Amino acid sequence: MLKEQNQHVNVPKHIAIIMDGNGRWAKKRLLPRFVGHQKGLNAVKRVVSHCSELGVEALTLFAFSTENWRRPEEEVNKLMGLFLKALQKEVRKLDENNVRLQIIGERSAFNQDIQTNIEMAEKQTENNTGLILNIAANYGGRWDMVEAVKKWHAANPDSPIETLTEDDVAQYVCLAGLPEPDLLIRTGGEQRISNFLIWQMAYTEFFFTNTLWPDFKESSIDEAIESFNNRERRFGKTGDQVK
Length: 243
Known about the structure:
This protein has helices spanning 2-5, 22-28, 33-54, 73-96, 112-125, 141-155, 166-172, 218-229, 239-242; strands spanning 14-18, 58-65, 100-104, 132-139, 183-186, 205-208. By secondary structure, the chain is an alpha/beta fold. It has a six-stranded parallel beta sheet with strand order 3-4-2-1-5-6, sandwiched between helices. α5 (112-125) links the parallel β3 (100-104) and β4 (132-139). α3 (33-54) packs parallel to α4 (73-96) and α6 crosses α7 (166-172). The longest helix has 24 residues, at 73-96. It starts with a helix and ends with a helix.
């Protein structure tokens, strides 16, 4: 394991993951797409546990985008059922492991059972001090920025729009108050961010892998972190300035 190999490894404070490839994983095995989503939940459990052990402060997983409603109705309904089941059955273990759960995204599109269980899960884990697990569900980066501006305007109704600053927006986007993602991992071979955390990932390092999400393991996280450790993060400065 990464931690055992190198005690001086620079573990990212915040890792974001686009979990891609469930459907293709199932198709390769001549199974229904939903079986891939079920297997993907096992990968979530592995990654959450490993990131917690490594000392990652925050882990943000892209579970369901605002665009995913366009998928076949049967698949969407089964995904919603899987989401509800996970909220009902996995939260106790998260709580026992000191993980704080947060759901980001527009909740009003979910049925009342899901909304209620989201609130209960967040309430149950809100005082935990370990890994912060953010699940992006019905989330879109463009929606996030528009909502942030709306919230700023509601809080500052008399302020001219010309006074709006980046710091103002940063206070109202999802995940405000957390470190911005240091590392984005996307599985499944695609190399795009698909409207995920557009504001928050201005200086995030990207790691793309062909591994399909259900096959993503602890060693896969280690590989991504090792790649991250070989990057020079300059944040607009020159390499000499950073050194």
